[in-house]
Amino acid sequence: MRTITTSAHLEPDTTARVSVFAPTPEDEGFVSLRVGGEFVDLALIARQGTADALRALARAAEEAASALDRITETTSDGAV
Predict the structure, then answer these.
(1) Structure confidence at residue 21 (pLDDT)
(2) 37 burial class (0-12, 13-18, 19+ CB within 10 angstroms)?
(3) 37-52 residue pLDDT tens
(4) Distances (CA, A) of 42 to 11, 29, 34, 71
(5) Burial class for 79, CB neighbours closer than 10 Å (0-12, 13-18, 19+)
(6) 71 vs 80: CA distance, rounded Å
(7) Cβ contact 20:28 at 8 Å
């Protein structure tokens, strides 16, 4: 990944969509993964050979979601 650092808060209405751009004679094709909301739209461009990076991102997102679930369970039980 090339270097950029930014932050944005995910909201319940945050959307995600995948667009596939087929290969052409001039380009090998790519996939765009867009995550967005009202003010921020993040587009990750993935070319051939980057599928494992996308899978790692998906695993990290699942881990983060599980951590949020545990936090919610803990705080709803009255413990902090």
Answers:
(1) 97
(2) middle
(3) 888 899 999 999 999 9
(4) 14, 19, 6, 26
(5) exposed
(6) 9
(7) no
